[in-house]
UniProtKB/TrEMBL annotation:
This is Elongation factor-like 1. One of its GO terms (biological process) is cytosolic ribosome assembly. PANTHER family: ELONGATION FACTOR-LIKE GTPASE 1, TRANSLATION ELONGATION FACTOR-RELATED. Pfam families: EFG_C, EFG_III, EFL1, GTP_EFTU. Residues 17-364 form the Tr-type G domain. One of its GO terms (molecular function) is GTPase activity. The keyword Iron-sulfur does not apply.
Length: 1117
């Protein structure tokens, strides 16, 4: 960018009323980057001939190769709309699901969004996702219906059909917005009623529609007559809103512009005789205005150009008053001529940018509601924040760049750039003076060299004069010193470029002026302004000495940049309301952060990410000595990607977790080429599984009803196994699946049963894990004697969860179960339950925090002892649920019910040996009698003796025994693996439908439904597919359908695999059907063995099954 352009942008930055921060959002391949190209070309940054071809904002090599965007990138553009000059900070975002985290980072920094929809494909899954993201961040969208040319050239629709088709697309988009709006209104109404019901009481009649009618939603929907829709073909360079045509025709036909604006889109037609616009085009079978005045013209232009009707083309060209160069009109590809004409007639940049300037809000229009949402972290209500914090809201709304305004900046991601590409290291163009200076230097050097050559020759000739320094030598000395200076300066970055990547923060200033070198507070996501304000001295600034405050640090913004797509321009300061890049934060910001000069500023709410990282690979350097480089590279990668996770597993493996296959590939490439720069090998993707138990199946593997006898047989088999392999003198498994295990020192005994949880319960627990975690924290602090004030909404959510569980866990088996939930696991918040079914043994349940402390009311010491035992049991349960017996993967949907547990009163270590026999006798008696009461009562009887042992053998052994007992209890039930499932939506034409089904079937996919997309010949297939089978799926589909279908995979849920990994044929039919080995069809066994092999666990395999056959084969060869 030239200095003039830069100056103009700098001056525009000071006028927030004319700034628009916007991002382009859409489903993958709907033309975001192509449209961005057109906008960039309007600023002369790239040639308009190349717009749509260079994809300027896709600056990475792999983005260009694959043709998809992977990183969001920003560019600042200038636009004059009438007499106003605007600054547009434009962010292009990726559409592929794998990179949806990049969309979150972009959306956060914007006030508005351009949502693009492909005119043929209509609303796609990612379109809905991005609309929701925009909605959640409270940013206003405008719509561009792109690829209009496809309606003409590919679908060959008539203008009338196209009009109907476009109406449908608008309806679809508005339906998505409508449902978002509805849920919000209902939510607000619920809140309002809650408040009202606090004040008023009495019977109320419930009116479900209330709220929806009152709230004004006309601004919300996309409609061409509202001016928030543009129809475009980015690739051909044209686009228009109804406004442009209203303008053209108001002059031509003498109809008022306002009237045309309102009637150009909709059920209106032109009565040529009366020269009037009438309503009811459809009913009267007339051409709607939009078809007659707009679409017909475009269609006939395309027709003329494509059929090479020279006469007509010339006529159109002259009537439109556009200029076409001879080389364009002669070009063999009619598209060239088309875009030459269209881009002058209806330039897309003009249409989109004027809509953006008129319809999208400026930073000054930020809604108070949005500010409160951004600032209320941790579900705290905005009005509960300290006063100084609440005052900052004003600063936000004012968006002031005054000297005394507090600086508030949000960093949404960190991105890496090559250090050499930074403006300060870039080779700058020399001014004429400098060139002159250099020339002079070079001349002097040349002269000096010549002179030196001469003197050397002379001294050679005349040795006697050695030592004498020639006069001319002096300037040469100075000269080289200068040169060294120069070259040193030039080469410095290379020498110090040990670190080749520099991290730049992708950020926005919300208030104040950011200056180069300024010091600010970095507020971590858990920073609490109340705490910060109380700990810091008054009017403390980030440049002072700052005492240690949790989650608060200071750093200086060493350099600030204007983001210009592939390039950065260094700036001195950036005022409020702008998007910018900040250098020098890599030490104190990992991925995102809030920066402020005021410690009263709360951290912004975290970005909401749509995709969860699920694909993990283990990474290992080729040469072990390069491990440190790999570790450093992975750390950098973690910082540079908003969604990738890097961790070291318990096994010591370095693991990279990514959102999907494409994301994984990009991360590996980045790691190899930029961050680690070493050779490494990545394992095959590690696929997560879950283990669970199910109810005994009713039919066998050949779908024969299992008779009672059969079941009995199975139970017998189990019993036998129990008595043979699994039963020892410590372990007892009874036929109903109750496992009783005694600790090795025989001081404690637990009896556990595993019960499958209903699926709905598992789902509920899975989705409420955050809430459960909060509940657990509250319980912890309660147990420590602290009392926490819980936010009423959270408390209510907990009560709601309990009620839901009670509702789902009905029946005799689950009587009172919810009340007795002892813990959730693993990690205290997972989808498994530990149930305290010991009769008469009252212990605090997980619902303790809800205030029902009627459970136990014991003396302190007594409670403490029991608590230690409790903790051991709960810990055992946590360990058991963390890794199950099938292949050491976490459990899911299992309830472990403790039916008895006894501890010997004499558990004190000193008495252990002497009383061993006695204990044994005692425990046996207990077990045979009705011992349910004994355990706890014993423990209660002599707490002091046991208390000495709370960290001793009993406690430790109790954990281990509990874990073992759970594992055996698990084994005693029919066990299953659960596989992670993706949902995928595939769009395909009828011809390739069969192939898509073929690939899905081969990969164990299941089609949920299939429907025809209205107005097209496309089918939409919705299917689920195990993650384990998904690698290479997208590629395979693309190959088999010659690129006509491309699926988007999103993690959806866990699903129980129906086959039993330990199944062996038992009935005659099963033998007949599967053969004796029956190992061919057992998918679960295959998965289980693969995981076991990876983890180095024992895998039961017969390697040589038919030795004789092998021998014969060998002979033949
Ligand atoms: N026919 C037609 N093709 C278009 C148009 N706009 C874009 N395309 C094509 O659509 C494809 C995708 O365009 P991109 O601009 O890369 O799409 P994108 O939305 O940026 O894709 P991602 O960034 O990967 O989500 C390219 O092959 C474009 O040439 C259009 O108006 N008409
Ligand atoms: Mg793109």
């Amino acid at each position: 960018m030239g200095p003039a352009g830069l100056d103009r942008i700098i001056s525009l930055q000071r006028n927030p009323a004319n700034i628009r921060n916007l991002c382009i959002l859409a489903h993958v391949d709907h033309g975001k980057t192509t449209l961005a190209d057109c906008l960039v070309a309007s600023n002369g940054i790239i040639s308009s001939r190349l717009a749509g071809k260079v994809r300027y904002l896709d600056s990475r090599e792999d983005e260009q190769d694959r043709g998809i965007t992977m990183k969001s990138s920003a560019i600042s553009l200038h636009y004059s709309n009438g007499d106003q000059d605007y600054l547009l900070n434009l962010i292009d975002s990726p559409g592929h699901v794998d990179f949806s985290s990049e969309v979150s980072t972009a959306v956060r920094l914007c006030d508005g969004a351009v949502v693009i929809v492909d005119a043929v494909e209509g609303v796609c899954p990612q379109t809905q996702v991005v609309l929701r993201q925009a909605w959640l961040e409270n940013i206003r969208p405008v719509l561009v219906i792109n690829k209009m040319d496809r309606l003409i050239m590919e679908l060959k629709l008539t203008p009338q059909e196209a009009y109907t088709h476009l109406q449908k697309i608008l309806e679809q988009v508005n339906a998505v917005t409508g449902s978002l709006f509805m849920s919000k209104v209902l939510e607000e109404r619920a809140e309002k009623e809650e408040k009202e019901s606090e004040t008023t009481s009495g019977d109320q009649v419930y009116d479900w529609s209330a709220g929806l009618e009152e709230t004004d939603d006309s601004q919300l929907y996309f409609s061409p007559d509202q001016g928030n829709v543009v129809f475009a073909s980015a690739i051909d360079g044209w686009g228009f809103s109804v406004k442009q045509f209203a303008h053209i025709y108001s002059e031509k036909m003498g109809i008022k512009r306002e009237l045309l604006l309102k009637t150009l889109w909709g059920d209106f037609y032109l009565n040529a005789k009366a020269k009037k616009i009438m309503k009811g085009a459809q009913a009267k079978g007339k051409k709607p205005l939009f078809v007659q005045l707009v679409l017909d013209n475009i269609w006939s232009l395309y027709d003329a150009v494509v059929t090479r009707d020279q006469e007509k083309v010339v006529k159109v060209v002259t009537s439109l008053g556009v200029k076409v160069m001879a080389r364009d009109s002669r070009h063999s590809d009619p598209k060239v001529l088309l875009s030459a004409i269209c881009s002058q007639w209806l330039p897309v940049a003009q249409a989109v940018l004027s809509m953006v300037c008129e319809k999208l809000p400026s930073p000054l229009d930020m809604a108070a509601e949005r500010v409160e949402k951004l600032m209320s972290v941790g579900a705290r209500r905005f009005d509960s924040l300290p006063e100084q914090t609440q005052e900052l809201k004003r600063a936000f709304l004012q968006c002031s760049s005054a000297e005394n305004a507090p600086v508030i900046v949000f960093v949404s991601k960190m991105f890496a750039v090559d250090t050499k590409a930074l403006p300060q290291n870039r080779q700058r163009t020399l001014t004429p003076e400098e060139i002159g200076q250099r020339r002079e230097l070079a001349r002097q050097r040349h002269a000096a060299r010549m002179a030196a050559g001469q003197t050397a020759a002379e001294s050679n000739k005349d040795h006697i004069h050695s030592g004498s320094v020639p006069q001319e030598g002096q300037p040469s000395g100075i000269c080289t010193a200068k040169m060294e200076n120069l070259t040193l300066k030039d080469s410095k970055p290379e020498e110090s470029a040990e670190q080749r990547e520099t991290f730049i923060a992708f950020a926005r200033v919300y208030s104040g002026v950011v200056k180069k070198g300024q010091r600010v507070f970095v507020l971590g996501p858990k920073y609490d302004p109340t705490q910060g304000l109380s700990m810091l001295p008054e009017s403390c600034s980030a440049s002072d000495f700052v005492p240690d405050v949790p989650h608060l640090s200071c750093c200086s913004m060493e350099s600030i940049y204007l983001l210009m797509g592939r390039e950065l321009e260094e700036l001195e300061e950036v005022p409020a309301g702008n998007v910018l890049g900040i250098g020098g934060l890599e030490e104190c910001v990992l991925k995102s952060a809030t920066l402020s000069t005021s410690p009263a500023c709360p951290p912004f709410i975290p970005l909401n990410f749509e995709a969860r990282p699920i694909v993990r690979v283990a990474i290992e350097p080729k040469h072990p000595s390069e491990m440190p480089k790999l570790v450093r590279g992975m750390r950098l990668l973690n910082q540079a990607d908003p969604c990738a996770e890097v961790l070291i597993q318990e096994t010591g493996e370095h693991v990279l977790v990514t959102a999907g296959e494409v994301h994984l590939q990009r991360c590996l490439d980045d790691l190899r080429e930029r961050f680690a720069k070493i050779e490494f090998s990545a394992s095959k993707p590690i696929i997560p599984f879950r283990e669970t138990v199910v109810r005994p199946p009713k039919v066998d593997m050949v779908n024969e009803e299992m008779g009672k006898q059969h079941k009995v047989a199975i139970i017998h088999q189990m019993k036998e196994e129990g008595s043979q392999g699994r039963s020892s003198d410590n372990l007892h498994v009874d036929p109903s699946g109750l496992v009783t295990l005694t600790t090795p020192n025989r001081l404690a005994t637990v009896s556990v049963r595993a019960i499958p949880l209903p699926q709905e319960v598992t789902c509920l627990l899975e989705s409420s894990s955050e809430l459960i975690r909060t509940m657990e924290q509250v319980n912890m602090s309660l147990r420590e004697g602290k009392n926490l004030d819980i936010n009423p909404a959270t408390l209510e959510a907990m009560v709601g969860l309990k009620a839901q569980l009670e509702n789902l866990l009905q029946g005799r088996k689950w009587r009172n179960a919810v009340e007795h939930i002892w813990a959730f696991g693993p990690r205290r918040c997972g989808p498994n339950i530990l149930l305290n079914s010991v009769e008469g043994y009252q212990r605090p349940s997980v619902w303790q925090c809800l205030g029902r402390v009627d459970d136990v009311d014991e003396a302190g010491a007594q409670a403490a002892v029991l608590r230690d035992f409790d903790n051991s049991i709960i810990s055992g349960f946590q360990l058991a649920t963390l890794s199950g017996p099938l292949c050491e993967e976490p459990l899911m949907g299992v309830c472990f019910s403790i039916e008895r547990w006894d501890v010997q009163s004499s558990a004190a270590p000193q008495s252990q040996d002497s009383r061993f026999c006695e204990d044994l006798a005692e425990s046996k008696v207990e077990r045979s009698s009705e011992a349910t009461e004994a355990g706890p009562s014993q423990a209660r009887r002599r707490p002091d003796a046991a208390s000495a042992d709370c960290y001793g053998p009993v406690s430790g052994q109790l954990i281990a025994s509990m874990k073992e007992a759970c594992r055996h209890a698990f084994h005693a039930q029919p066990q299953r693996l659960m596989a992670a499932m993706y949902t995928c939506e595939i769009m395909a034409t009828a011809e390739v439908l069969g192939k898509v089904y073929g690939v899905l079937g081969k990969r164990e996919g299941r089609v949920l439904h299939e429907e025809m997309k209205e107005g097209t010949d496309m089918f939409i297939i919705k299917a689920v597919l195990p993650v384990a089978e998904s690698f290479g799926f997208a590629d395979e589909i693309r190959k088999r359908t010659s690129g006509l279908a491309s699926p988007q995979l999103v993690f959806s849920h866990w699903e129980v695999l129906s086959s039993d990994p330990y199944w062996v044929p038992t009935t005659e039919e099963e033998y007949l059907h599967f053969g004796e080995k029956a190992d061919s069809a057992n998918q679960a066994l295959k998965y289980m063995n693969a995981v076991r092999r990876r983890k180095g666990l024992y895998v039961e395999e017969k390697i040589v099954e038919h030795a004789e056959k092998q021998r014969t084969l060998g002979k033949n060869k």
